[in-house]
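WARN retry 2 of 3 for item q-0093 after timeout on previous attempt; input resubmitted unchanged.
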Amino acid sequence: MKIWSGTFFLVLCVIVGCGAYGASLLQGTSFPKTANDLTFTQRIELDTAGYEPWETEYDANGRCISGCLYPGITMQQELEILDRNTDAARVLLQDYLRYHATLPTAPSEQTTSPTSDSPANTQTVPTVPVAPPRCTPNNPDIPVDQTLPVGEPLTGHPRITSQYGPRIHPVTGNRSTHKAIDFAAPIGTPVFSTANGTVAAVWTDKTCGNGLRISHAQGMETVYCHLKRSLVKKGDTVNAGCQVAESGNTGRTTGPHLHYGIKKDGNYINPTEWIRR
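OK item q-0093 returned
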């Protein structure tokens, strides 16, 4: 008898609703805590606009609380995913450097000792003369018509203020994974595209601030955050080494800098080898 009563109640809920309980199932979830909080349409709209979580944050137990790839992911799991993405992109980078004569001029041909701002696997970078881009201003270290984002988006090889990888978020104090490299840059510093490409998105949000994403060949993309302003608009064609923006201090920051990320097939990778430090 109890089973039939429970079945009848369930059917009745489906037909006429179950009051407060039924209403709670329809309440909107926090946004955008996880990708599962979004409908397919919302994901398309946000991707088109350029929005995405720029940094994943975790609680003291290592469980994701913001910007999660999927519910319940741990920091270790996310780092493993990012490492796999980076390894796949590394093959493309190695092939590019092997078969293309035009390499960005390195600041030095000497292998440097590891510091807090340089990875332990720093390698000697060959110095090859390159023709500077045909634009003014330009980044002379980026070869004309370079198709993949090799080199740096700023001139002068500025100080790196935050490396890619695990860190304590400077604003929230939470454990986090930083999916980009931060360069010290006074407000108004010229920002350059590191490869030929097409502007995929220009937007503003509370975290990235004024943001820009450029699509390049073979599924590569570059992402720029905290800009003072973009000098291009969605759909524009941009040339390697030419200015596309000015750095700034917009969004969630502790001071002026450029946040520079690289993606392969929509997935973030470690940009350290690509900037050739």
